[in-house]
Amino acid sequence: MKKIIFFLTLLFSTTLFAQVTQRNIFAKKYTLDEVKKTLIPLKEYHPYPKTPEEWQAAVPDSVLKDIVKNGEKLLDFKFEAISATTSLDYVRSGDRERHGKLSYGKRNALTDLILAESVENKGRFVEAIMNGVWSICEESYWGVPAHIRGLPDVENPVVDLFSAETASVLGMADYFVGEKLDKISKLLRKRIYYETNKRIFEPMLTKSDNYGWMSKTKPVNNWNPWIMSNWISATLMLEKDEKRRAEMIYGTMLGTDLYLNGLGEDGGCDEGPSYWFAAGASVFDCLELLGNATKNQISIYDEPLIKKMASYVYKTHISGHYFVNFADADPKLRPDGLMLYRFGNALKDEKMIQMGQWAFKNFTSASMGGSYHRPRRIENYLSIKQVQKESAPYVPVNDAWFGDIQVLTARASNGFFMATHGGHNAESHNHNDVGDFMLYANGEPVIIDAGRGNYTARTFSAQRYELWFTQSLYHNLPIINGLGQKAGREFEASNVKSTISEKEATLNLDIANAYDKNAGIVSWNRTVKLNRVKNTVELTDDYALNQKPTSLQQVFMTICTIDNSVAGKITLKTPKGQVINLQYDPKVWEVSTDLPSTEGMEYISFKTKWDNLPVQRIILNSKNLAQKSKNSFTLGLN
Description:
This is Heparinase. It holds the Pfam family Hepar_II_III_C. Keywords: Signal. It is built from 19 helices and 21 strands. Helix 12 (about 225-240) runs parallel beside helix 15 (about 280-295). The chain is α+β, with helices and mostly antiparallel strands. The protein has 2 domains: about 1-385, Glycosyltransferase, CATH 1.50.10.100; about 400-635, Beta-galactosidase, Chain A, domain 5, CATH 2.70.98. The model is unreliable at about 1-20 (pLDDT under 50).
């Protein structure tokens, strides 16, 4: 068991920030006695509709019809057992998908069936719900094998993301259709509580300090608020002992404090926007659940850190479904507009409200389903009628600087969007990419961060940096003497300075310390500038090495078509026909290109990730190989 917990700590507790700030917002504001006094008792806890009449009063008819239709498709769903062989896929082949398809499929089907029965109330779905509940209760482990590296020890339950998610799904079954299950057998609800108590409640009450994502001394990542939100949900719907119920809710508040303690003062999410929807958004899930369960007597929405944490998501929005995607973040998101709308309202953040309305209009389905955060989905249904009221149109922010994670985002009047960052190479979901940047033109990717591949056993192991998409050699960075950056906290940017004005948005930093020492770098001062006067992006590297290099290269990653037939100019053409010129000194550089691999389990997603366009690497090879020099590159619309 200790080995498993150490493994989880190793993989999921490292983040960008060097230290924890003991803010302890909940702990300083509330006591356990206050929770006991304000918490609505289980018998009176009625957060969601339970009858067709209540559903009809709260949710549009068209949505209710879709909920029932989704349930009807699953009336004959087979809740398959998960074999030991399937559970061992991860350690034997590295594959996570066969187990995930079965496990996630069962939970998604059960959720749809539960909601369909609650909305319709004719008993058509109860038998299928019973089978789903029983099948999941019969599983030896509710999480995924990747988080325990193989078969589970049933005597020592491990709480992970998906075991916590499972608890909230079973809580929903009890809440919405519990009385109907009782009519079949009183043992069904008894089993739900028994399994949830054994697998989630007792471990969280007795050994939560053993989990890396509950560390009091090291920053924690999205695991913490994601699990806290599901622990809250399951506790509120299942725990009958009011004293224990209050103790667990207070435990979730102290647990959420740990995530907030690890954030920097600017509220930046080093995991990227796609993970923000599991991190910052899960903090909101916690706050929303706590408020609803205490008649809003427990609330920290007025804390500046919460407002800053929330604003991160719209400050890293590029255009449409594109978001800044450093580290393992995905470049394309379908943002949950209804959740954003509610979060914005809770914070009185007009920009977030507007983004929520925009996102719900443009990505409606993102708010209506999904494989995770299922209690959030119900809250989404209940807010549809509110969000349909129009407000001012959503306009993305012009620029932002997150000093805590050293990320700069900025726009120019010609439609250019630039993002760049410093930081270090021990971020959560880290790629070795200190000093990387990206450029979009009117919402189209030009210079990109390729993103992550498919998660397998290698993704979170000592072999992680054998994968090309994690290496600095496949980011928009220099390669010195054939060497790239190294992974680890000590490999970081120094002398970092940002400048934002009407004329420019610039990041200056020395990236020398991020590289392998054998690269021989004395200093490598990089400047990434969005020139708002010329509407260009200008990249300058002023470097000194300890001796003349044997090779020196600069990489640019793109999905554009490439024409390098003219010396000194690389012409990049976007799918919509925009032309961007990358200018360089032809006396210093010669150009080559290559295609990173899309073969193998880890690379499958690169076949389709960028609208079926191949990720290409442009490599500029230095011809003069100077020990000390200053090189510049300029990107501008043709």
